[in-house]
Every structure is written in C-alpha cells, then in structure tokens.
Design brief:
Blueprint: E1 2-6, H1 10-22, E2 26-30, H2 33-40, E3 47-50, H3 59-68, E4 77-81, H4 86-95, E5 99-102, H5 107-119, E6 128-131, E7 134-137, E8 142-145, E9 148-150, H6 154-165, H7 173-181, H8 191-203, E10 212-215, E11 219-222
Helix pairs in contact: 2-3, 6-7, 6-8
C-alpha cells in the first residue's frame, strides 16, 4: 500500500514518513499542495494524508482537485491538521474527505484510521445493485440511472451504496455517520443532511421517479416512491 503524505512542516513530514514506513507502508512525501496533487495523479497512491495549511495550494484546494478528477476521485483522503474548529471538520467532510484527525495526535490512532480506510471496499457478495432504473456497479464503482452515467465522489458513492444495499430500511443519521464517515454523529452539524442533498442533486433531481426519501425525525431511506410508477420492464 502506497500512502502519500502532503505536509509542509519538515519535522512532522519526516516523522510521518518514517513512522508509516516502519508500520509497513510505502510512503511518498510532498512538501506543498501542488507537488502533492501531481504525485496523487500519477496513479499509484492508495491513500492521501493531507494537511490544510500548505504552500502553493492549500489542502481544501487539493481535495477539491482530487475529487474533480475521475482518476483520483475514489482515493481515500485523511485530513491531518491543527485546525480543530467544528466548521473546519465539517468543511473537510463536505468536500469529500474520508476522515479528519486533529494535531496533536497519537500515531497509533493515525495508523488505525489509515488501516480502517484501506480496509473499506465494495461488498463483494453483491456486484450489481438495481433499484428501479438505477444501477450500481459495486466492483467498478460506477453508477448509471436510466442509462446515463453519474459521476460520484468517493463519499457520495459510499453513501449511495449504503442506502441502496439496505433498500427499504430507514437509516438514522447516526448510523450513516458511523458507516460512511466512521465518526460519531454530532447533532450540531449538518454533514449528513448536506451530503444527502448533494447526492439527490445527481441521483434524483434530473429524474421523475425519486429514490432517496426523508423520514422526518428518523433518517433516510432508498426505495421507489410508492406515488411514482415503476418503469416498464425492458423487452
């Protein structure tokens, strides 16, 4: 597994590079955001550990660029930063980060979080999920609706996959937070609601038959709207 560390503070960068190498990972180190993005786009990176305050290109911009590129949109990103305000954590998650760890940190916790992110993957017993005219190719991480390809970020795909494989079940915000972001749900933030809104814009808004529904006070469910007709089966 090759991990890219993007960290401009020399001691911290060297410490992370040495410690992760000793933990069994191949490590590449970039000292600024622009170089880090270039390395990530080379295609051999399994996970990115990303600081926010970086020269030449800050962590927010790097993450946005990664998520906008089909070649890197699914690469897990873990923010490792001294910015510990709630709105910073929320912004990172909303932009598509997979985890957020605040400095100072325990190295064993960082390694545990990295291994958790690297273990995540498609549910192999079900390669293709179909709901109405929505198709989710779990292995290739591709989504189509009514024959149209839909590009999702890594977290949008994880959220859709969770809702779809538990079709018909109302999932609480706490469950979604723990399954998709590996975090405890904080009722003072709207990370889950904002993520669902973004997913709906891509999955539901362009189509008449809505699949993602809100159950007020309970959570979200993926199912064919009983008020909408099912599409006619193909020949």
């Amino acid at each position: 597994m090759t991990i890219l560390v993007i960290e401009d503070e020399p001691k911290t960068g060297d410490y992370l590079q040495r410690g992760l190498a000793e933990s069994g990972f191949a490590v590449r180190l970039a000292r600024n955001g622009r170089d880090g993005l270039a390395i990530a786009r080379e295609g051999d990176i399994e996970l990115v550990v990303l600081d926010v305050m970086l020269p030449r290109m800050d962590g927010w911009q790097v993450l946005e660029a990664l998520r906008a590129d089909p070649e890197t949109e699914h690469v897990p990103v873990l923010f490792l930063t001294a910015r510990d305000e709630v709105h910073d954590r929320v912004r990172g998650l909303e932009l598509g980060a997979d985890d957020y760890l605040v400095k100072p940190f325990a190295f064993v916790e960082l390694v545990a979080r990295i291994r958790t992110l690297l273990r995540r993957g498609p549910v192999r017993e079900e390669e293709l999920i179909r709901i109405a005219d929505l198709e989710i190719d779990v292995i290739r991480r591709r989504v189509r609706r009514a024959g149209t390809a839909i590009v999702l970020t890594a977290q949008e795909f994880a959220l859709l996959h969770l809702l779809a494989r538990r079709q018909g079940q109302v999932l609480s915000r706490a469950l979604i937070a723990s399954q998709v972001w590996d975090m405890n749900f904080d009722s003072d933030t709207n990370v889950i609601d904002a993520a669902v809104r973004r997913l709906r814009r891509k999955i539901d808004d362009p189509f008449p038959n809505k699949l993602i529904h809100t159950r007020r006070g309970m959570g979200y469910v993926c199912e064919t709207d009983p008020c909408e007709p099912e599409p006619a089966p193909g020949p």
